[in-house]
Design goal:
Elements (H helix, E strand, L loop, with lengths): L2 E6 L5 E7 L7 E6 L7 H12 L2 E6 L15 H15 L7 H14 L5 E6 L1 H12 L5 E5 L7 H4 L8 E5 L7 H10 L4 E5 L15 H19 L1
Parallel strand pairs: 3-4, 3-5, 5-6, 7-8
Antiparallel strand pairs: 1-2, 2-4
Amino acid sequence: MGQFTNLQAADGFTLPAYVAEPDGKPRAAIVVLQEIFGVNSHIRAVADRFAAEGYLAVAPATFERVKPGVELGYLDTDMAAGFELKTAVDALPGAGVLPDIQAAIDHAARLSGGGKVGIVGFCWGGLLAWKAACLLTGLSAALPYYGGGITSEGEIARQPQCPVMAHFGDQDHWIPMDGIEAFKKAHPEVAVHVYAAHHGFNCDQRGSYDEAAAQLARQRSLAFLADQLG
């Protein structure tokens, strides 16, 4: 089990982050980026599972600038509330929440003793993981899962600064297959995996959870992290 700590972004903003530490010296570090539901029990469980694999995991609260203490479930009302908060984040001036993610990357590097840092994100966090791979410093690997918006023209135009493995579902009504194909064509350097699954297939608290797809994506992700981070 991890615990929350406070991070400070470069502009002085303070935000909480859930930190899960492994037994013994970390092999490396992972920043875990939330969906639109906050650093809820699912995201904390994801961080805990990475810690069990020997990684130090840091999950920053990326809604903190617009509403503190967000922890939602997966009902329709939660979805509506999460979209409203995401819209508010998108309206933030300047770099938005990217400084908060940079603070998490830097904190993860320090706590892991200067080890390499990777980043994983789900849904909205998948989009943020892609942006972080393209725009932030200190990353050695990125794993966006079904990142809504990644396949937009503006995001496809970005260039990652670290190795990336991306996971998508072929039945995802938020991310059509033609967008995934356009992303693959523009980024042959990215390892793109597509599963017979819906949006949110990795989350065992959602109706769209697909155990087979989630397990295969996890196996591929852990192998990728082992190659890139050690």
